[in-house]
Amino acid sequence: METRKNNSFHNTAAKYRYLLLFTLPALLFYVVFAVYPLFATFFISVFQTEGGERSFIGLDNYVYLFTDPTQSGQFWHALLNNLEFFAIHLIVQIPVALLMAALITSDAVRRLTGFYRTILFIPATLSVVIVGFIWRMIISPLWGIVGFPLLGTEATALPTLSFMSIWEWIGIPMIFLYTALIAIPKDILEAARVDGASGMRTFWGIKFPLITPQFGLITILTFIWTMNGFDIIYSLMGGAPGPNYSTDILGTFFFRSFFGYNNIIGDADFGAAVATVIFLFILICTAGYFVVLQRRLRPHEL
Amino acid sequence: MKSRIAPLALALATAMIALAGCSGAGSGDQVTLQFESWRPEDAAIWNSKIIPAFEKEHPDIKVQFSPTKATEYDAALKTRFQGGTAGDLITCRSGALNRENIKAGYLEPLKGLAGLSNFDELSQSFWASSEGDPYCVPVASVMAAFFYNKDIFKELNLQVPTTQAEFMSVLQAIKSNGKYVPLALGATPGDAWVLAFMGLYNEGPNYWHGEDGRQGLIDGTKKFTDPEFVEALDSLKSWTPYMPDGRASVTYSDATQLFALGKAAIFPSGSWDITAVTGTSGIDVGVFAPPLPQAGDQLYIQSHPDMGIGINAASKHKKQAQVFLDWVATSEFQTLYANALPGFFGMGKDAVKLDNPLAQAWSDLKTGAQLTPRLGQDILSGGNPDFEVTMENSLQLMMTTDKTAAEVADETQKGLEAWYPPQMK
Amino acid sequence: MTQTSISRRRSAPANGATRPSPHPRRHLPPSAFLIHGVLMVFVVIALGPIFMIVMNSLKTQQGIFGGPFDLPNAETFSFDGYFRVFQLGDFGNLYFNSATVTIVTTVLTVGLATIAAFAIVEYKIRLAPVLSAFFIIGIMLPVRLGTVSLLQMMSSWNLVNTTLALILVYTGMSLPLGVALMVTYFRSIPQELKDAARIDGAGEFQTLGVVTPMVRPGLGAVAALTMLPIWNDLWFPLILAPGRSTQTVTLGVQQFMGQYDSDWPALLAALTLGAIPLILLFLVFSKQFIKGLSEGYGK
């Protein structure tokens, strides 16, 4: 400790200087091209536009969102659907991704690790246009292998879309957990082997506890991504996604409000209010998660 | 590794800024008009036939057709208007969406444009402001009716139906035969508009007597729960046994393929599909009008103002854009257009000769029929909840579950009563 | 490092005899069989649908709808879809645009995120966690919302219809996740390593140079996560760079799909052509980045 004292970087002013120097380029891009435009838009949610004239209306757009029977009904409905969309990802995508990551890092596959890792990631490189197209064809009652109209039935439409999304994106949590698993120092695992622990026991007893922070992180990222989800549903079901709005999620609700859809005329001011509410919801949930859970998922000191 | 890539990236970025600067410089006299459209499917025709014809007459004006897919068009166009990057020429939807753009000041008023005299007042009114001023030149209207496969009809010895009863017995005969799908129509939620445009607005006007029913809804003297509308919905529901298996997931594209490949006998659709159904496997296709409730009834046909062209109010080349619009108003353009895109009918006063026999057959359906635009577009749209979106949602359920016509009528009417003054209680 | 010797020993079992075998061989075959079996099922699920698209793009329209799951045969095989797409589209240009945008953005994001994350982890002063939180909030922002302001900004800078506009916007949007991820990777580096570098007299930039190879897994992950949504994004190309000369592959393919609504061979050909480059790009990246990460940890 003492030896480092005279090093220049321990001087607080120098630290500030370096911190700013190193973060400035990233901050510049981020603030100018993401934060500023978004907040400029949040700002318009307290206005209304009538024939090109913009006037301040305070929180009226928010009041309207929560009191108008059509809008508030659709908003809560979309929120619930979105939570279901997330829940399916949570229950299916993350465990399967963990299984994939565990299997490809197991000793049995050493040589083929790269092969499996690459192949299983490929669907994530496809655009939503192609994913929607393939799966709609495969499950088409006319040409495909499923006679039942999965996408056209209220009970099955959202789960079906969730599975398409899971199929496409599973590579991401897999790579995430994979990089965490291979980062575990080998001497720890070696010790377990010497103790004769089985593969299963090594995994749940040693490996998994070591990657819980990454596991928590990918869970919350999945939450954020699914709550901002939009593409696959819009491309297959349109902007007022049926049947009977059973696949309407926050992203499609926002899009419809902001840009309009079909004959629904978009209202940028109201749409901005919708987006602000969605953003705050995600922010609060995420912050809550970090405060309550992630702090406890500290990695064991390596 | 990073340190080697960073300068490279910087160099690339610098090079691109330089490139961007170069491309910005325009040439002196020649003006290029950017032309916004929602029909990328027409790109080849505009680029190879129509625009060259214009540029030949007006060598100092270039037109660049830049389409956006129909599903993204309105959102993208609105964003471009707000960002000041919309093209000079704007393809206009008819009715409420266009009025919204007019109200926001995005479109240039066309009052006094010479070419407009080639169109009657009704045609112009679909793209007019609430005050009745013209903002777009009418370009095309489309119709709805029923394509049928002539060979299948011959094979099964069927006659073209004219009444609802005949229509049902034809469908039943095809179903009993079992070889073909009687009706190529899907009811997947993503394409619910199909059930309105090609279903209800196709066969329905015969029940609500076209403009009679439509204007009645608009001025509040009729309700969507009135018997003529419920009957129309009921008649649509009677189609369900003849639709393809798994109809709740069958898309518009699936239905088109089913018919174009000769696997289905009848395709309720619009004139815009002429190329799609005849293009792929060369089946022999005919068309018949929506069946009448009773023999001898007046026939009503959906003829919808689909497309107009206007000028961006912020365009830097309004003069040249007006030259283009005047040309679009000529019968030269209309003949060129209607023949290049069979099924899109010109709206000018002068009749246009159609080379495509099937397009001509469609056009012939109008003889003796009364025409009416799509029920839910224009005035009834644009509120919250939107008439058409509410109805399509209910229609999709009616065609795939046991929801009844009366329930659909009820839900749609309630939506209308929530915002549309003449219908408010 | 020591681990390299372990892997060598494992691939040459004869040497292993001098020490107690770390993993009894006889346990391997049945479980290995099962593991490969499960993974092969995943592989089939991942590749099957993609294979279907490619296969059907080589068939005639009748061939596709006659039996979408059949391999092309003499009667149904056709290359026409590709011919039609190539006739109309300048795919070379589309690829160039997409590649430029994707690669430049990825490099910028990975580079800037690494430097920023290093600083946030390294300089433990009060400002650091604030900056960190500021970036994390960015992950949650609904990016489409700022479209209109962005378009106005780009328009006033004369950058509409340039690939640079896309690069700037994408970089701004990818950085929050990039920084947040890199922070977690830098945190896992033992402090002693950095201190050791400093004691050796390394400056801050050199220290960064020393520790960067240790966060290679992070670089790979950030690169992959940045690349995918950008290549496949439809919205911003549509708004910021819809012009023919600056169109990206995804937007171009979307336009083809509109144009070939009922010509499925052409449509599938366009989809295939749009998808293949990123798969190839990923294969290359996978080797360079993600494979490199195992070396970083001395596996």
From TrEMBL, chain A:
Recorded hits in InterPro entries, A to Z, give: ABC_transporter_permease, MetI-like, MetI-like_sf
- Give GO cellular component annotations, separated by semicolons: plasma membrane
Which keywords does UniProt give here?
Answer: Cell membrane, Membrane, Transmembrane, Transmembrane helix, Transport
Per UniProt, subcellular location reads as: Cell membrane
Going by the entry's taxonomy, the superkingdom of the source organism is recorded as Bacteria
SUPFAM superfamilies listed in its UniProt record: MetI-like
Predominant location: membrane
Q: Name one Pfam family in it.
A: BPD_transp_1
- The UniProt transmembrane annotation reads 20-47, 85-106, 118-146, 166-184, 204-227, 270-292
Q: Do the record's keywords include Hydrolase?
A: no
Q: Does the keyword Zinc-finger apply?
A: no
The membrane-topology field of this record reads:
Multi-pass membrane protein
Q: Give me any GO biological process, just one.
A: transmembrane transport
Q: Which family does it belong to?
A: Belongs to the binding-protein-dependent transport system permease family.
Q: What is this protein called?
A: Sugar ABC transporter permease
**Species, as recorded:** Terrimesophilobacter mesophilus
> Source taxonomy lineage?
Bacteria, Bacillati, Actinomycetota, Actinomycetes, Micrococcales
Automatic annotation (TrEMBL), chain B:
Instruction: Just give the chief location class.
Output: other
Q: Which residues form the signal peptide?
A: 1-20
Question: This protein's superkingdom?
Answer: Bacteria
Q: Which InterPro entries match?
A: Bact_solute-bd_prot1, SBP, SBP_1_CS
Originating species: Terrimesophilobacter mesophilus
Transport as a keyword? yes
Q: Where in the cell is it found?
A: Cell envelope
Q: Name one GO biological process term.
A: transmembrane transport
Which UniProt keywords are given for this protein, alphabetically ordered?
Signal, Transport
Recorded GO CC terms: cell envelope
A Pfam family: SBP_bac_1
Kindly indicate whether the keyword Signal belongs to this entry.
yes
According to UniProt, the name of this protein is: Probable sugar-binding periplasmic protein
What's this chain's function?
Answer: Part of a binding-protein-dependent transport system for a sugar.
Automatic annotation (TrEMBL), chain C:
Single Gene Ontology BP term?
transmembrane transport
Q: Which UniProt keywords apply?
A: Cell membrane, Membrane, Transmembrane, Transmembrane helix, Transport
InterPro entries noted in UniProt: MetI-like, MetI-like_sf
> Subcellular location, in the record's words?
Cell membrane
Chief localization:
membrane
Membrane topology listed for this record: Multi-pass membrane protein
List all membrane-crossing ranges.
Answer: 33-55, 94-120, 127-145, 165-186, 207-231, 264-285
Query: Which family is this sequence assigned to?
Result: Belongs to the binding-protein-dependent transport system permease family.
Any idea what this protein is called?
Carbohydrate ABC transporter permease
Q: Which organism is it from?
A: Terrimesophilobacter mesophilus
